[in-house]
Every structure is written in structure tokens, then in C-alpha cells.
Amino acid sequence: MKLLLLLGYLLMVAAQLLLDWLNVRHRRLAAGQLPPLFAQRIDEERLRRSEEYALAKERIGLIETLLGVILTLVFIFGGLLPWYDRLIAGVSDHFILHGLLFFGVLALVQSLVGIPFSLYRNFVLEARFGFNRMGIGLWLTDLVKSLLIGTLLFVLLAGGALWLVQAAPHSWWLWVWGFWAGLSVFLLLLSPYLIEPLFFTFKPLDKPELEERVRSLLERAGVKAGKILQVDASKRSGHSNAYFTGIGKVKRVVLFDTLLEQLNDEELLAVLAHELGHWRCGHLRQRLIKGQIVALASCFVAFYLLNTHMLPGWFGMDELSFVGQVLLLGWLAGLLGFFWTPVSSWWSRRHERQADQFAIDLVGSGMPLATGLVTLARENLSSLFPHPLYAAFHYSHPPMIERVEWLQQRTPTNAGLSVGDGPAEG
Fold first, then answer.
1. Facing residues of 244 across strands?
2. Does the chain have fewer CB atoms within 10 Å around its N or its C terminus?
3. pLDDT in tens, 309-324
4. What is the CA angle 289-290-293, rounded to 5?
5. How many angstroms separate the CA atoms of 343 and 392, rounded?
6. Is 356 among the residues known to form the active site?
7. pTM for the predicted model, two decimal places
8. Catalytic annotation on 275?
């Protein structure tokens, strides 16, 4: 069984490397074949830099992937895990404390390994292409905040789950799921007020006319949002975004200040209409329900497998603690998740298409969203020529050129760019 698991893991790595190679090769062959709407806004120099940016990200991603493969092979298949499990047990045999130390030390090591990659991405790669706006002081501050918040959430989630395992040995799978589900909803309510402001400064939109048009758009979409805010994302990065966050009475619209600089009002409203489409089409609710169903099933499967005590034998190990077996379960979930990725990506692209259609209906034309996406592709140096197989496997959104052409095909020839007249009829 150990050999089969090892071969499955190596197959996953080989599949990922093959997809990456196909993607790089395809981009080089297809580069320069821009449709008219893109050619009007993206010149050859910008297209060349987009390819350089994509390659630079892929190179550092490849190094990170290979390092992860080596560490996994050594830790799980090289016999290091049982030694580590015994080492932590020697520090404390208390069930909850042992579990917190076991995963806490691993999380700390993972964070330390990730620091050089984060430094390189921000201060070499992103800086080289003009995106990084952070100094080392802000980067360190963000790192400390992230570690503190992560540690607090880890102790709460892992400690609470381990306590429930100990308190309800015959039904902990249901209690752990309920605990995590309740806490995740609570964090959705809490995050906009306690966590996000630790990293960004939010303020009311400083364009009164645009705010009025945004509220009109929200009203016509049938969405009530308490606040329309802009965030100072530009002090960290030149990348742009907008999102609709919160549930219940804490819903709010958040616009990056970089987005406000890059798009005109018509394009910005169309992008926002797309985000509203996710809410009105029930995508956020569906994802939440799907996530909880998967979590419930995972907790039950984990309960069953941990009770059978089969996991150590599958990996050629004599014995492991409860938390050591949980680690193996997490690794198996990651392996299965990789091969589930194309299904998840397809489902996400389907939602994106529905949100695009909602935006068309709401603003009366697909052109504002189309031109806005082209502008964002230009400003963010987006990769425009992914291999179809790579895109089908990994892309959560339709490829940019395909998406823009789809929007253009659904735009009436006499449609203007105004969003003030409401959804198109018929």
C-alpha cells in the first residue's frame, strides 16, 4: 500500500509538471495573436512583459513545489514522521497539548520555509514588474500580525476539536464538524470588523457621484449593503480588485483604490455588477453549503479510518499517535483534492459565467465589463494564452480572451456603455 501511495503522489507531481510545461509551451506559440479589443489596449511591449511575469512566477513556483515534494518524501515516506511523533510525545503526553505542539511546530517550520519565498516574491519578482509598494517594515508588520492571528485561530480550532475528540470519543466527528461550521460563520461576521482592519484602512468612497450610482446599482440588483468602502490596497501592491463581503446585516462593498484609478465609472460599475451576480445567483450560499457538506463527510471518514487504526500500516509505519494519523489523513485529502481540482474549477467557471450574465442583464450591455477586464488584464500583466488543458484544470475563471469574446457576443450592436437605465429587457 505504501508503494501505491508513493506512486500516486509521484503521479500527481508528474501531472502538475506536465501541465505547467504544456502551458509555457502553448503561451510561447500563441503569443501575439490578440483579438481587436485587446490589441487596441495592449501593445507588444506590455504583452512581452506579461509573458516574462508569468514565467518568473512559474519559476519560483516550480522551486517551491520541488522543495515541498522533497520535504514530503523525507517526512512521510522517509521515516521522519514516526520519529517526530515520538519526539513531541516525549515533551508532553497530554492529549490536547500534544496535538497543539505536534501541529504547531510543523506550522512554524512551514512558515519559516515560506519566508524566503515571500521575500523574493515581494521584493524581487513583484518589485521588478512594478507591483510591490511595500517596504520591509510593512512586510514584517504584516508577517507578525498574520502569525499572531493564525496562532490564535489555530489554538481555538485545533484545541477545541481535540477537546471534543476527548470528550465524545464515539461521536466526535459530528461535534467537531458542528464546532468548525459555527466558528466559520462567526468569523465571516467578525472578519470585516476585527481582522481586515488590522491590515487595511477602510474609508467611505470619496466619489459622491460614483457612490450614488453604486447605491442605485445595488438597489436595482435587489441587494442591501450597509457600507460602500474603498481600501488603501495601493500601499502594498499595484494589483487591483473589488469584492462583496459579509453576511446578514454586515454586507458591504469594498473597492481597491487601485481599481478606482484603473477603470472608468462605467467599467467599475460593470465589475461590481458581476460581484453582485455572485450574491444574487446564490453562489456564496452554494459554496458555503458545499464546503460544509464536504467538511461533514470528511469528519465522518476521518472518524471511521482513525477508529480502524489502518493508516500507519498503509504508510509502512508500526504505530502513530492520533494526531500523527490526522496528519496522514490531511495528506491523503490533499492527494485526492488534486485530482478533484478540474471538477471544482469547472464549477467555479460556471458560476463566473452566470455572474457575467447577471452583469449584462443589470447594466444592459457586456461592453463595460469586457473593456474593464481588458484594462485589468493589461494593468495586472495577466497571462492571456493558457493551454486549454491547463485552464480546464486550474482556472477558476474562464480564460480572459474567451471571456471577453463571450461578453462581446452578448452585447447588442446598439448597446451603449451607460449603466443608468437598468437591466436590458427581454
1. 253
2. C
3. 899 999 989 889 999 9
4. 85
5. 9
6. yes
7. 0.85
8. yes
Helix (H, G, I), strand (E, B) or coil at 334: helix
The per-residue pLDDT for range 245-261, each reduced to its tens digit, is 766 666 677 888 898 89
pLDDT for res 150: 92
Catalytic residue among 51, 85, 267, 275: 275
203 DSSP β-pair partners? 230
Q: pLDDT by residue (tens digit) across 28-49? A: 888 767 899 999 999 889 999 9
Q: What is the pLDDT of residues 162-220, one digit of tens each?
A: 999 999 999 999 999 999 999 988 888 888 888 889 999 988 888 888 888 988 998 88
Q: Round to whole Å and give the CA distance between 300 and 313.
A: 20
The answer to whether the CB of 312 falls within 8 A of the CB of 320 is yes
Flag whether 170 is marked binding.
no
Query: Which residue in this structure is represented by grid cell 502594498?
Result: 236
Report the C-alpha gap between 315 and 335 in whole angstroms. Answer: 14
Contacts 24+ apart (CB under 8 A), 307-315: 313/1, 314/1, 314/2, 314/5, 315/1, 315/2, 315/5, 315/76, 315/77, 315/81
Q: Known binder of ligand: residue 274?
A: yes
CB 340 within 8 A of CB 390: no
Q: Domain map of the chain by residue range?
A: 1-34+265-426, 202-262
CA max distance for the chain: 75
The rounded distance, in Å, linking the Cα atoms of 196 and 188 is 11
Active-site annotation holder among 51, 85, 267, 356 = 356
- What is the homologous superfamily of the domain 202-262 according to CATH? Metalloproteases ("zincins"), catalytic domain (3.30.2010.10)
Q: Does residue 387 have a known ligand-binding role? A: no
- DSSP-assigned letter for residue 385: -
Q: What is the DSSP annotation of 161-209?
A: HHHHHHH-TTTHHHHHHHHHHHHHHHHHHHHHHHTGGGT--EEE-S-HH
pLDDT at 207: 85
Alpha-carbon Rg for the chain, nearest whole angstrom, is 24
Examine the pLDDT at 417 and tell me if it is beyond 50. no
Cβ–Cβ < 8 Å for 268, 276: no
pLDDT at 1 (0 to 100): 86
The C-alpha cell 487601485 sits at 258
Overall average pLDDT of the 353-365 stretch: 94
